[in-house]
Amino acid sequence: DAKTTQPPSMDCAEGRAANLPCNHSTISGNEYVYWYRQIHSQGPQYIIHGLKNNETNEMASLIITEDRKSSTLILPHATLRDTAVYYCIVKKGGSEKLVFGKGTKLTVNP
Amino acid sequence: DAGITQSPRHKVTETGTPVTLRCHQTENHRYMYWYRQDPGHGLRLIHYSYGVKDTDKGEVSDGYSVSRSKTEDFLLTLESATSSQTSVYFCAISESLQPGNTIYFGEGSWLTVV
Fold first, then answer.
1. Collapsing DSSP states into helix, strand and coil, what is residue A81?
2. How does pLDDT run across A46-72, given as a tens digit for each residue?
3. What CA–CA distance (Å, rounded) separates A79 from A87?
4. Are the CB atoms for B108 and A43 separated by under 8 Å?
5. Please, which residues have CB within 8 angstroms of residue B21's CB and are 6 or more apart in sequence?
């Protein structure tokens, strides 16, 4: 599975959009980009995933560049409850493994 | 939220004793997983199951065994607990390994081996 690179930490003001970047320059054609988050002491929570098109759900939007080498997770109106570690993961179909890196610690400030 | 229940949620046990953690799902998903999470290592796959009585090892399987006698239950056993197995254990489930399929996690079981 391709490796991902994320900034270790980011801050965001409450009510503003949080844009979390992820670099996955070695991604291959059959690998999806997944985003999970982990709020302190809880299990990882699935947010969104995509292959090459931009995706949106009730939690977030995922923007994948045309060359698929990077992506951005957007939380449109961050709240204090969005403070968490966000993991960008690349996974191919047929693989049982989700490989978690260190993620980005997002702190939403009042 | 996916219907995943882990038990016990917290346990303290002594070195050398056997410990079993249970994961129960109500989603009828084929795949079930056990991960552990430790500071500095992130989440690591211990074992997974791809059906009743069908299991395979993950990257950190030494010292652990698993069993799956029913679709809904996946048990993780530490035959003789050691202090290095003090960790948070997460169960996860997924419907398939098809591209784009999602893995959902339980709330975790905190195990302390003293």
1. helix
2. 999 999 989 999 999 999 999 999 999
3. 18
4. yes
5. B6, B7, B8, B11, B34, B75, B76, B77, B89, B91, B109, B111
A56 touching B (Cβ < 8 Å): no
| Yes or no, beta carbons of A43 and B45 under 8 Å apart | no
Which has the closest alpha carbon to B42: A69, A58, A8? A8
Structure-model confidence comparison of residues A17 and B2, the more confident one: A17
User: Does any CB of chain A come closer than 8 Å to the CB of residue B90?
Assistant: yes
Least confidently predicted of A89-93, B11-15, B25-29, B105-109: A89-93
Of B99, B102, B108, the CB nearest to A46: B102
Kindly calculate the radius of gyration of chain B based on its CA atoms and give it in whole angstroms.
13
